[in-house]
Amino acid sequence: MNNFPWLTTIGLIPLLGSVIVMLVPKANAALAKSLALFFSLVTLGAVIAMALQFEGNSTEQFQFAESYSWIPAFGINFSLGIDGIALVLIALAATLVPVVILGGWTEAANAQGSVKGYFALILVLETLMIGVFAATDVFLFYVFFEAMLIPVYFMIGRYGGPQRSYAAVKFLIYSLVGGLLMLAALVGLYVVSYQMTGVGTFDFTTLVGLDIDPDMQKLLFMGFFLAFAIKAPLWPFHTWLPDSAAQAQPGTSVLLIGVLDKVGTFGMLRYCLEIFPDASEFYAPFVIAFAVIGIFYGALVALKQTDMRRLFAYSSMSHFGFIILGIFVFTTVGQTGSVVYMVAHGLSTAALFMGVGYLMARRNGSAQLSSFGGVNKVAPVLAGFFLIAALSSLALPGMVSFIGEFMVLLGTFQKYMWVGAIATVGIVITAAYVLRVYQKTMTGPLNPDLTNMKDLNGREIAALVPVSIMIIALGVFPAPLLNVIEPAVDRIMITVGATDPEITVGLVPSAAAGIEGIVE
Amino acid sequence: MNTFAAPLIDYSALGPILIVVVAALVSVLIEALVPRGARRFLQVILTFGSLVTAFVWLISIRNTRVITGDGAVAIDGPGLVMQGTILLLAIFGAMLVSERSLDSMGDSFAPRASALPGSVDERELAARGHTQTEIWTLYLFAVTGMLLFVVANDLLIMFVALEIMSLPLYLMVGMARRRRLLSQEAALKYFVLGAFASAFFIFGAALVYGYTGTISLPEISESISATTGETGLILIGLAMLLVGLFFKVGAVPFHQWTPDVYQGAPTPITGFMGAAVKVAAFGALMRLLYVGFSGMQWDWEIIIWIVAILSMVVGSLIAITQSDIKRMLAYSAVAQSGFILVGVAASTAAGIAAVMFYLIAYGFVTIGAFAVISMVRDSSGEATHLSKWAGLGKKSPMVAAVFSIFMLSLAGIPLTSGFVIKFSVFAAAIEAGATWLVLVAVGASVIAAFFYVRVIVVMFFSDPTENTATVAIPSAFTTIALAAGATITVVLGIIPAPLIDLVSNAGIFIR
User: Fold this and answer.
1) Which of A325, A346, A347, A345 is nearest to A334 (CA)?
2) What are the mean pLDDT values of chain B's consecutive 10-residue runs (511 residues total)?
3) Would you state the pLDDT for residue A506?
């Protein structure tokens, strides 16, 4: 089965599904939704089947590699392949799509666009998300990267809240600017590859093998990095995110923040670091500074928010600060932690935004903290799931996000003790705003308007259960995750030419040994 | 005593030109002999019939490589590709010219070009539903000139072709039905400046003749390499020839006519000339440089670089400030000429292929874009001010989406033809060693993307006002041209390989 084109197949299933969903008559929205769920589950099944064949300690950098000639004149190929990092992110995307479809069953009902259109867009987006993580041709990656804008633009612009068109435009323009810079850098990369090898190429492995002039690297790095920083979003390129999150349907936000924004951090790890290693080291102090600012800025602003969607958007920004920090400290533990954190953040974002979505559906679309209070008295199941999501967001030990956050901080301590110390303070603020949300909405005296509030129904629970299980299961037993991520990170560290520092300080190595123990 | 030997002429190789020129002559006869009521029908049939026949003929002689007419005309791979491009663009351009469903008063052209704007005469003609049909005659002559321009192998034929192409265009520019004063002013400006540029060209030809003693491009090349020293005369001659051609492609600093002419001309004519003149003039420019002056590459290369950079930068920067969509596209055309010149500067086989590919894709985008502009109207005719396009995406999402495709293509965004063509000229220039030129070009592309994307933003992201134009329902003519333009733009963006192979296999100019 090694020659079976797994990635193409997995990418095409949701695309096929979206076409079929669009063919369903408009009146029969239930059938369209069922079909969308079916195709997303088939995709998930295919991803699981592929993941089971993935070899953690393979000598190949990219497994399940496929390559077809696309524009031979420019050395552009349709090349796919995955390493451990791409695998976990594809798995994350494939997991969250059915969850979002199920949880967002009623989301598109009163929107400007048709119901089937919303679910077709989700499936198109799934294809593009798989493509963007699987691409091993830089041009192909760029195409997927930019093409993702289109479904998201429509998901926000046609199915969002009252300010949807403003939010959609802001999202689009920010992303387009980043995309243009990246396109310019892409052409520059082609120029460099032509000059160095005599053949222009976009093949990732070939580009990594080039020893590009450091000054040129610094220039090209900026093009790629800014695009990723806007997507991730890194402070100060973040202002589109709260607006988008506040206007989009919760399901859209889950995919946008949970998966799409990971493309930014994934891109930094895969493309910026490996193709421009010298530039990455040169810029690392600046990026780390921005990341730490982002951690605090996001967390502090989140403290003051009254709309839960904006609040969790800012909190995500804070978490992205941790992820980016882990990437740019150049330690195995830090980078592995970052990838774990990406997955963890995807899962907790999904749980949080779905929870917010359920609350909104019971409160005429309001996500204000003041609209709720004492929910655990009328809807204990909802409150319970929300608590799991909230605890995951603040990285309680036992949750998968704890593994990620802890490893990131550990990796940071290994290299930059003071940065690590400062960033750790961010955890405290996180705990403060997350618990504030839980306290204001779920506990305390019951808000009189909520006396008739219904608890979760079967469908809503069905959407949350798998996410909650994964949050806890991977938190207790992260080995499957770490086993596939670590080899990929090791490879990146070798490519970048970074080595883990020898640790001599007393306390840290035992903790490091503990983590190593988990890894083994 | 010298006997005059008639030159051997390969009529088959000249078939496409001959078909169109005969059709143009027949078209004159139709104007003279056929009753008014039947003219339009016959002219439309004749125009499409002859253009399609010429294209089919061209396909049948696609492997011909011959210099004929005593060295005056060179039918070679690039020449045939560009002739084919011109014919295809002419066919789609003719569809826009034939459209008469958009304007409540008929087609896009003045009932009688000689009637004074605003006169009683004009009103009466309009009231009677008078339409003029000479436009097709002029159109066919212009196409004839273009077809000859790209295969002209000596300076005199090149000049004749230039004039056959230009004179009808001057006239057609002045024939707009609406805003006639603007149109006539544009025509006069175009004519005066164009005549000036033609004078430069013929003067340059004379100087080159004075230096080399010949007007045939291959012989000029031989003469240049055989002669040493005293290059002043030939340099000035070449510079003057280039002035004439740069004027036609609208390259800075010979671009001043473009905004007025693009704005004033009837939109179908703007689309046609924006697309086809560029193909013809760049075809002639490449043949002139690569065949006639290949020995002087070090001298003209620097001219091309400077003009390319000026065109890209000036065109992109001024386009940002435009508020009229036709003027904006005019400056965009200037910038695009700069990008094409980047490919011309490469002067390799890859460069020729890249330029041809660029011209093909750009031509279809241009015709498509102007087709959309001809459809967006308010009570006074076409609404070309950008403010009237606000919210068009909400009123007519399909049309606005198609126009967005064209804008994205002009901006060079991947998955549209615009990216592939920009990339191919850049790649060719890099292979030729002009890396820094490409870096400038990439910078200019980023600037240019701003104003193309701005149109999309205006259409989709602002709310319609009472001033927002409406989209008129076109007949099949414009619909087909528009659909073809959009389809080609997207298909070339996703699967460009077949066309790249075709232009690459066309080879180089024969001598």
Assistant:
1) A325
2) 76 93 96 89 94 95 88 92 96 92 80 80 79 90 96 94 95 89 92 94 94 91 82 89 94 92 94 94 94 88 93 94 93 95 89 93 95 89 88 86 92 88 88 84 86 86 82 89 93 90 86 78
3) 43
The reply to whether A153 falls in a domain is yes
Helix-then-strand count for chain B, H and E? 20, 5
Domain that holds residue A407: 6-519
Residue A486 lies in a domain: yes
Looking at residue B109, its pLDDT comes to 85
A1: in domain: no
Q: Is 0.85 exceeded by the ipTM?
A: no
pLDDT tens for A341-393 read 999 999 998 888 888 888 888 777 778 888 888 888 888 888 888 888 888 88
- A interface toward B at CB cutoff 8 Å? 69-74, 139, 142-143, 146-147, 165, 169, 173, 176, 180-181, 183-184, 187-188, 190-191, 194-195, 200
Counting as low any pLDDT under 50, the low residues of chain A are: 1, 504-512, 519-520
With pLDDT > 70 as the criterion, what percentage of chain A qualifies?
A: 96
Per DSSP bridges, beta strands B66-68 and B73-75 are antiparallel
Q: Which tokens sit at B351?
A: 């460069």
What is the number of structural domains in chain A?
A: 1
User: Measuring CA to CA, how many Å separate B392 from each of B96, B330, B378?
Assistant: 21, 21, 12
Q: Who among B423, B424, B449 is closest to A180 (CB)?
A: B449
Question: Does the distance separating the beta carbons of A71 and B415 come in below 8 Å?
Answer: no
Q: List the single residue in B414, B457, B500 with the smallest CB-CB distance to A142.
A: B414
CB-nearest partner of A169 from B445, B461, B504 = B461
Of B410, B422, B442, B458, which to mutate for an interface test with A (greatest number of A Cβ within 10 Å)? Answer: B442
Residue B295's nearest CA partner among B227, B206, B216, B246 is B227
Cβ–Cβ below 8 Å for A191 and B446: no
Residue B427 to residue A147, Cβ atoms within 8 A: no
Q: 3-state class of B324 per DSSP?
A: strand
At B2 the pLDDT is: 67
**Closest Cα in chain A, distance from residue B391 (Å):** 12
User: The tokens of A297 are what?
Assistant: 């800025």
Residue A107 lies in a domain: yes
Task: Parse chain B into domains and list their residue ranges.
Answer: 15-505
A286 to chain B, closest Cα gap in Å: 25
Residues 6+ apart with CB under 8 A from A165: A157, B461
Q: Which residue of B has its CA nearest to A158?
A: B394
- Given A143, A191, A194, which is nearest B414 (Cβ)? A143
